Amino acid sequence: MNTPTGRGTRYAKRPIGAEPRFKPTSPDTAVGRFAAWLGRFAYRVPRPVGPVGPVIGAILFSAVPALAQDHPGKPIYDRWCAECHGIEGRGDGPAATHMLPRPRDFTEARYQIRTTASGALPTDADMLRVIERGMPGTAMPGWPKLSGSQKTDVIAYLKTFSRFFESEGTPEPLDIGGAPRASAEAIEEGRQLYDRLECWKCHGAAGRGDGASAPTQTDDNDMPIRPADLTQNWLFNGGGSVEDIHMRLRTGLDGTPMPSSSDLITANVVTEEQLWNVAHYVRSLSPEEQPAPREIVRAVLRTGALPGAPDDEAWSDVPAAYIPLVGQIIEPPRWFVPTVRTAWVQAAHNGEELAVRLVWNDPSRSPDPAWSEWRQSIAAVMEPKEEPPAEGALPDALALQFPAEAVSGRDLPYFLMGDTRTPVHLWRWTSEGDVTEVTARGLDTFEPLAAGSAAVVGAAAYADGQWQLVLRRALTPAEAAGRPAFRTGEPIPFALYAWDGSNGETGKRAAIGSWYFLYLEEPVTATVYVVPLITILITALLGFAAVRYAQSAHRQGERAPKAGVALAEP
Amino acid sequence: MLLRKYVPTLVLSLFTLAACGGGDADTGGTDAPDADAYTVPAGEAAVITGVVNFEGTAPAPEPIDMSEEPTCAEKHDEGPVRRPVVANENGTLRNVFVYVREGLGDRTFAATSDDRVMDQDGCEYQPHVMGVQTGQQVTFRNSDGLLHNINAQGSTNRSFNISQPQNMETERAFSQQEIMIPVRCDVHGWMEAYIGVVDHPYFAVTGEDGSFRLENLPPGDYTIEAWHEEYGTQTAQVTVAAQQTGETSFTFNDTMTGAFVPLGAPLDPHDHGRVAAAPARGTR
Fold first, then answer.
1. Domain locations in chain B as residue ranges
2. Read out DSSP for B8-63?
């Protein structure tokens, strides 16, 4: 009873009554024990070994299902879910420590995505939805590979982990009606309510998850958690439609700081329709369609000076390309919780100079003391074993990567900052204001280039949880050593890295992207205008000639007697 | 397999029946507690009183940076502070939840109709520690007129999280015994409160004089437990006869920081054995 525990773990003490009803034990037979023992390797084999473990497990489970378990959902759960959620459903599987939010602890029966009131259990349909679609803002994938009956069985099995599914009765879904039509007025009222209901305290004035309360958010197990970035609805855990958003407003996301607003309707603070308008407003913060990455990013041709300021109006009519980023999990120290998930890239050139505008959301302008506690707790929960977390103040940073030498076709350097044979050239910007040119031959081998006249010019602005950065350089660098020249009409490979200092990100703890290609539009030469004219002229002349020929042939035919006709006449 | 699944339930049921053998709990129904509610026979009511002493020095209060909420900051004349340990001038400890843990047998008690209010005032919960009976209404009140959320993280009870963006009241009740339910506001990370839920009316929270008084008890042998958010729990055995007043006291001291503090622990009304500690997840 006198187990010493630190303050940080006090909320983690969990109920005694939450033992799973089906103990994860095999029948007490030698065969059953052996099968269960072997089956454990299904999730213990380290990933690099490949699918050997699951294959052994699958063979065993299919061979001795009746002996190895007593619930039809158990083999499915043990094979596909236990790696993260743990064999006893406590959310403590072998992979759990790489994830944030941590996998759900089913013994608590707290479910984020429900159609039921806060504090109520989810319906079977709610659980099915998450299994089918996953939770896009988390590590939970969708499971289209499971059959209908497998999903039903695994849902039934999940419910055995908590006695609440016996004691609470069948949950009642909330009746939210249908979504009223979106309109400018509805969205405007939603915006005002977003202010009045103080959603911005966590989600930020522009909805980018940068509210004043964001740095201190923790989930029910005291793990750091971020308010959703409302401008990226494709990453919402419960779906990004206006119906999904409204339902989350009504139900809250249990286990997270997101509360339910249903009581606001019963207390006449807002009407259901007004809450729908909040949902319309939140929906309006994200693009109409989920953005899809495209390999080619066009650098538009402009005449005269390129826009150098990140907030220059001239950028508004340059198309923006979506670049998804992920954590660097290839080389240790691996990084599973990158802050930056999305970057938008715009580019323009004028035949002399290239300007690239990069826009990404980051809730903190690092270094920011308000986020120091956040950084500490992230470092504490995200396996610092591979390398101790960095010390000292860390800025935000972004790097734009090009091959250091000309490449042919698809023979690109290794996307993670090249290797010893094929180096890459980086423009590395930090929020301390400097841009450096760097040659890299692998993730750890930066060689700064001497700052010369070819230096890259950077200009950045931060507002409401968003960085905007413009980087410019002459197409042909004055000092060519180690610096690639950019030619129009050729695809120029590039890749992106982003670091959020307040999240403890530096070096290999980074958000990374894959190779994309910048295509610099070619200047429109005179031939573009002349060739069509000549073509039209030639076509017209040929046509005229053809018509003339046909007409003269016709007239000759009229004068000459037609042999066939003559024969036919009596 | 199926039989094995139900064995514990059967054993528990038999145990319950045996325990209920003679006396007042003569019906199997549990759905109408009021009809079966126990009342102390006239002239038998006993009392247990005492104090919760404190030895040593209370940790210095930690200042709270409330600059993001000037409305709340203004309500604190001497600046807002976090004070998990409040030592009274008379050498006693405030905010200790004292309750009858064992000894009431299978008696059921009428749900009290009194509302308990937990106010959010100055971006603080008032009271900081509260006791309620199962089924008793708790009114969560927002007196600050700014956004709070009430995240009651029960484990034996269903946890809930509700929004209060303005002055308003929301009512909730807890159906299961639980020592204790942490309540927090995610908008203001410093706000925390604790609610103890028991299925009888014999509980108290120590105030400015550190005393407690449990009245109108049936005569009997009791285990009284005192819970403190920083120093954990202590128990005492007290026997009271009809119309008598039993006295007991608890003593916490400043070396107890870091003691196991039960949160979310259920109390089984039919098995008053010591509840084993769940392993703290952070250390597994």
1. 44-224+250-267
2. HHHHHHHHHHHHTSSSS------S-HHHH---PPTT--EEEEEEEEEES-PPPPEE
A440 vs B: CB within 8 A: no
User: Which CATH fold would you assign to the domain B44-224+250-267?
Assistant: Immunoglobulin-like (2.60.40)
Does A160 contact chain B (CB < 8 Å)?
no
- CB within 8 Å: A16 and B278: yes
Do B281 and A196 count as a contact with CB atoms less than 8 A apart? no
pLDDT reading at A117 higher than 60:
yes
**Beta strand spans in A464-559 (E):** 466-474, 491-499, 511-512, 516-520
Task: With CB atoms and an 8 Å threshold, state whether A5 touches B232.
Answer: no
Residue with tokens 């009803």: A21
Which of B177, B252, B281 has the highest number of chain A CBs within 10 A, making it the mutation to test binding with A?
B281
What is the predicted ipTM?
0.80
Which H, E and C letters describe A307-326, residue by residue? Answer: CCCCCCHHHHHCCCEEEECE
pLDDT tens for A458-516 read: 999 999 999 999 999 999 987 777 889 999 998 999 999 999 999 999 999 999 999 99
Handedness of CA A491, A492, A495, A501 (dihedral sign): negative
Phi-psi region of B220 (alpha: psi -120 to 50; beta: other; left: phi over 0): left
Q: Taking residues A41-51, report their average pLDDT.
A: 39
The number of residues in chain B equals 284
Point out the residue among A11, A217, A264 whose CB comes nearest to the CB of B182: A11
Chain segment A297-325, per-residue pLDDT in tens: 999 999 999 999 999 999 999 999 999 99
Beta-bridged to residue B149, according to DSSP, are B163
d(CA A77, CA A97) in angstroms, rounded, equals 19
**Closest chain B CA to residue A25:** B1
Pairwise CA distance, residues B14 & B8, whole Å:
10
Say if residue B277's pLDDT is above 70. Answer: no
Shortest CA distance to A202 belongs to which of A236, A226, A222?
A: A226
- Would you call A216 an interface residue with chain B, using a CB distance cutoff of 8 Å? yes
CB atoms B155 and A15 under 8 Å: yes
Please determine, for residue B26, whether its predicted confidence score (pLDDT) is greater than 70: no
Q: Suggest the residue from B160, B168, B183, B194 to mutate for an interface test with chain A (most A CBs closer than 10 A).
A: B160
Interchain pair B282, A168: CB under 8 A: no
Judged by CB atoms closer than 8 Å, whether chains meet at B278 and A10 is answered as no
Query: Pick from B151, B276, B284: which is nearest to A259 by CB?
Result: B151
Residue A554 token pair: 């016709």
Select from B209, B193, B180 the least CA-distant residue to B53. B209
Q: Which 8-state DSSP code applies to residue A374?
A: H
- Judged by CB atoms closer than 8 Å, whether chains meet at A13 and B169 is answered as no
Collect all residues of chain B within an 8 Å Cβ-Cβ radius of residue A8.
282
> Which of B275, B277, B282 is the closest to A8 by Cβ?
B282
**pLDDT for position A67:** 46
Q: Which residues of B touch A4 (CB under 8 A)?
A: 258-260
Q: Which of A494, A359, A353 is nearest to A415 (CA)?
A: A494
What pTM did the predictor assign? 0.81
Q: Is the pLDDT of residue A281 over 50?
A: yes
By the CB < 8 Å criterion, does B7 face chain A?
no
Half-sphere exposure of B88 (CA within 13 A, CB side): 17
Write phi, then psi, for A53 (nearest 5 degrees): -60, -55
For residue A471, give the nearest of A296, A300, A299, A308 by alpha carbon: A308
For A148, the enclosing helix (H) or strand (E) is: helix A148-159
pLDDT higher than 70, residue A41: no
Peptide linkage before B191 cis (omega within 30 of 0)? no
Please count the other Cβ atoms lying within 10 Å of the Cβ belonging to residue A70. 17
